[in-house]
Design a protein that fits this description.
heterodimer, A: mainly alpha, 10 helices, elongated, B: mainly alpha, globular, disordered N terminus
């Protein structure tokens, strides 16, 4: 696990050195959400009804925005070749990178989401459901995204390609995130949705680092 | 003797069934022998299936003639799933045993599977308008099949995004395997969610909930579709092999030109 902590610390350190570059994703998230009241009209009833879904979709897109730098930069400057020849197993590298990505995008998104929920006139129970959904959903997005990012290293137009590959895989997470918010808003039990989000997280926690490691291993061959 | 012996350069290892077909020449010989037989099964089944389903089969007491869309739609949906299963299995074989023809099979299968998916979606939509009163509903079955189409398209895009075909094959294979989680979702979507799309009426265990007069044309069409899929797959793989050979020859010629 030493490799895991080293990668995590390194990526967080690099993000701090970039001074604010890592927070572009959450800025995009907030700005994107603020476009909807302006585009759809500021009618409070409609905004509170759409709010949960809007925030979930924007969380997906903001996660995606930060993904294409996940391995690309390390591939370009040769760090990835060193990591591949290092004794640390590649899945720990993938897991560390995915966790760093989540801490830098998913974490800030969760912190800003309640504020944006209030701006969109969402009810308190709905905001509570949204927080639960984002807390369990966004780590899954980072983990699944790591597979896509590792598969598109060195590809032509990798940014757009990454979005096309990863978004279909994000759909289940989106469905159950907005399901949680809808159930919480109408006062229904949202335990089932949250359980499925948790199951998706555990599943991707086990499978995604391994799949990303398989993709990383193929680059040098 | 296990199948995991790497044999990309040495002649096929005796006893490993998988790697007997890693030799392109052997594959070409076999596919050339199989192709006429496939055609001999597919063509009569297609003609008989079309005749029975569009002319001979009884009309539904509720759906009238619209029911005939089913004979085109259901086998196409089956082949959409079968195509992706082929893709996933070929990808697994390509990744685990580094089987060169498996990578090729995956690449060749994707556009065919995507084509069948489009046919299934289009005919389903045409059937939905008179029967459900809408071209499209956001039900779990329909949504998961649309996701399947995008998985096919993403796989094909990934193949085209790399300079070296070896790298493309591995990246696309990883993606194909991850996307395979969608297959059980499609299969069980009609059971897990209370949806508009009807659950399966044909099961291997027990009696099918469909009249023989309708089952016969459906099965004929299914055999025809399967034959067509395999036929197209073989042709596409042979084209792919021929293309690689042309590229290798061109490369060799340009190298020889430089040497002079």
């Amino acid at each position: 696990m030493n490799g895991f902590w080293a990668i995590l610390a390194r990526d967080l350190h690099l993000a701090r050195a970039e001074s604010g570059g890592a927070l572009l994703a959450v800025q995009f998230f907030a700005l994107g959400v603020l476009l909807f009241p302006l585009g759809l009209g500021p009618e409070p009833g409609m905004l509170s009804r759409l709010g949960g879904g809007l925030l979930a979709v924007m969380a997906l897109l903001a996660t995606l925005l930060a993904l294409d730098r996940l391995f690309q930069q390390d591939h370009e400057d040769g760090t990835l070749d060193l990591l591949r020849t290092s004794p640390a197993p590649l899945w720990t590298v993938a897991l560390g990178k995915a966790l760093a990505h989540w801490l830098l995008t998913g974490g800030p998104i969760i912190l800003v989401a309640p504020l944006l929920g209030i701006v969109l006139q969402m009810s308190w129970p709905a905001i509570g459901g949204l927080l639960a959904a984002l807390a369990l959903g966004t780590p899954t997005l980072s983990l699944v995204g790591a597979i896509g990012a590792s598969a598109t290293i060195g590809a032509r137009r990798s940014g757009v390609l990454l979005a096309l590959l990863v978004l279909p895989l994000y759909i289940p997470v989106l469905i159950f995130m907005s399901g949680t918010v809808t159930a919480a808003e109408t006062g229904l039990a949202f335990g089932a949705h949250v359980s499925i989000l948790g199951a998706l997280l555990l599943l991707s926690l086990v499978l995604a680092p391994w799949a990303a490691a398989v993709a990383l291993r193929q680059i040098g061959e | 003797m296990t199948a995991s012996t790497p044999s990309s350069e040495q002649p096929a290892v005796r006893g490993s069934a998988l790697h007997r077909f890693a030799n392109p020449a052997r594959f070409l010989r076999l596919s050339r022998a199989v192709q006429p037989w496939l055609l001999a099964i597919t063509l009569p089944c297609l003609i008989a299936g079309l005749y029975f389903s569009l002319v001979k089969s009884p009309i539904d007491y509720q759906q009238k003639d619209t029911v005939r869309i089913m004979y085109v739609h259901v086998p196409a949906a089956w082949m959409a799933m079968f195509g992706y299963s082929t893709l996933a299995i070929a990808s697994a074989i390509g990744l685990i045993w580094k089987h060169p023809l498996a990578d090729l099979a995956g690449k060749a299968a994707a556009p065919i599977g995507a084509g069948f998916t489009v046919i299934a979606l289009a005919t389903g939509s045409l059937w939905g308008k008179p029967t459900w009163g809408t071209w499209w509903v956001w039900d779990a079955r329909l949504t998961s099949v649309v996701v399947l189409l995008f998985l096919y398209l993403g796989y094909m895009a990934l193949w085209n995004a790399f300079e070296q075909p070896q790298r493309a094959a591995k990246a696309a294979a990883v993606l194909a395997l991850v996307g395979a989680v969608n297959l059980p979702i499609i299969k069980f979507s009609v059971d897990w969610w209370n949806t508009l799309h009807q659950p399966a009426s044909i099961s291997r265990i027990g009696t099918p909930a469909i009249d023989p007069a309708m089952l016969t044309p459906l099965l004929l069409m299914a055999v025809a579709y399967l034959g067509l899929f395999l036929l197209l797959l073989l042709v596409r793989m042979r084209v792919e092999l021929a293309e690689r050979r042309v590229m290798a020859l061109q490369l060799a010629r340009s190298r020889a030109g430089e040497g002079r």
